[in-house]
Design brief:
446 residues; Urease, subunit C, domain 1; TIM Barrel; globular; binds zinc ion; Metal-dep_hydrolase_composite
Length: 446
């Protein structure tokens, strides 16, 4: 990634963010109309009204973004790098979808030329959608994961990613051994963990495809290296859960297959968790791990409704993920809206989500899940300037709402309800403009 400019810039724009959680703090949403954000060396130095910041910093260059709405860069906590080209495999439950749709494509990433093209599409798709940090489910091939990290670092995406490891029940070319999984992961960790914006996540695909030996190899890596993250899948689909039960007769439940290997910690993010037991929720809360909720995928694969209320009541942290390609695209706006829909559809059993909840789930909740909230996830001074500008073009549905809005809260609600990638015109990662589109629709970066 190119160096950030050391020259300070004062951004003039209405901005919103959630430095706290609306699930616990009714005043979590901060709205600054005609705001100012002073950014230097990629870091936010000061924030407030534009007039106050202008008075305090009269000589600083101003970038005028009035007419738009600035939000923190989105944080997608579950997205599969090798699945961008198989979005849209509708009409199948999880295990059939894996066999017929996802795994044949994942096998193609053995070819470095193929994986480079896919990595470029993937990083571009995330940044164009305003996602500046992602917990990425990598590839089964170490060469493809190396290429992903180099593309992420080149484009400015903060990727928390790793080699996906499995040793049974997928396809032979996607299987490895505990020894090879350990050795290849270690080499990637030594090269990429903490390099630039990149971090490493130890990633067994799911217990269905992982022997105890490979889970132990994952645990050895977590013990050996500081600050690694851990991610996998859990409790997504009835047939999957039943198979895991048969494969681990000694385990109390699905979570226990990871827990007894020492894989469930503050740095663990488990995707889905649609069908948890009370014990699993209690243990997840105790270990301070996160459930990544992926509502578009859950709908597309018919996997079920996410029991958000039970997670919150148990004290389990929840973040949001697109789960491309089980999910339907890279938009965290669409994902937030689908989360809202699915809670609405549960009636009394659902949690009524406000636009503040959706913004929190799409930004700060992900930063907390990844233990990166000291760096990103909101726009308070001291944070890195990871941000996205919503600035709908004239004569578009969202522009009509923006122009008519009587208060800024309407802007946020409408952004989630009807905003698309086409309404996002600028994205910054670490203060650097990593995506920029002019009013004609021409992409100027990435
Ligand atoms: O939604 C999912 N997508 C996947 O690729 C996958 N692999 C295991 N379990 C999974 N669930
Ligand atoms: Zn997934």
């Amino acid at each position: 990634m190119t160096q950030t400019s050391p020259t300070p810039v004062l951004y003039r724009v209405t901005f919103m963010h959630t430095p706290a959680s609306p699930f616990t703090d009714p005043d979590a949403l901060h709205v600054q109309e005609d705001g100012g954000l002073l950014v230097e060396n990629g870091v936010i130095l000061a924030s407030g009204t534009f007039s106050a910041l202008r008075a305090a910093h009269p000589g600083v260059d101003v970038t005028d973004l009035r007419g738009g709405l600035l939000l923190p860069g989105f944080i997608d906590t579950h997205v599969h790098y090798p699945q961008g080209r198989v979005i849209g495999g509708l009409g199948m439950p999880l295990l059939e979808w894996l066999d017929r749709n996802a795994l044949p494509e994942e096998a193609r990433l053995a070819d470095p030329a193929y994986s480079r093209a896919v990595a470029q599409e993937f990083t571009r798709s995330l940044l164009q959608n305003g996602t500046t940090t992602a917990l990425v489910f990598g590839s089964h091939f170490a060469s493809a994961v190396d290429i992903l990290f180099s593309e992420a670092e080149r484009t400015g995406l903060r990727a928390v990613a790793g080699l996906v490891v499995s040793d049974r029940l997928l396809r032979p070319e996607l299987h490895t051994t505990p020894e090879r999984a350990y050795a290849e992961s270690k080499a990637l960790i030594e090269k990429w963990h903490g390099t630039g914006r990149q971090l490493y996540a130890v990633t067994p695909r799911f217990s269905l495809s992982a022997s105890e030996g490979i889970l132990d190899a994952c645990a050895a890596l977590l013990r050996e290296f500081e600050g690694l993250r851990f991610t996998s899948h859990i409790n997504e689909n009835g047939a999957e859960i039943q198979t895991v039960r048969e494969l681990f007769p000694g385990a109390r439940d699905y979570l226990d297959t990871y827990e007894r290997a020492g894989l469930v910690t503050r740095h663990s993010v488990l995707a889905h968790n649609l069908h948890p037991t009370g014990r699993e929720l209690g243990a997840m809360a105790e270990h301070c791990c996160t459930a990544a909720h992926c509502p578009c995928s859950n709908s597309a694969l018919g996997s079920g409704f996410f029991p958000l209320k039970r997670h919150l009541q148990a004290g389990v942290h929840v973040s949001l993920g697109t789960d491309v390609g089980g999910g339907t695209g890279f938009s965290m706006l669409k994902e937030g809206l689908q989360a809202y829909f699915m809670q609405q559809l549960q009636g009394e059993g659902g949690v009524p989500l406000t636009p503040a909840h959706l913004l929190y789930l799409a930004t700060r909740a992900g930063a907390e899940a990844l233990d990166l909230h000291h760096l990103t996830g909101d726009l308070t001074p001291g944070k890195v300037f990871d941000a996205v500008l919503v600035d709908p073009a004239p004569q578009t549905p969202l522009r009509a709402v923006f122009d008519a809005a009587e208060n800024p809260a309407r802007l946020l609600a409408a952004t989630f309800a009807t905003g698309t990638q086409g309404d996002l015109t600028r994205v910054w990662a670490g203060g650097e403009a990593v995506y920029c589109r002019d009013r004609s629709g021409a992409a100027l970066h990435t």
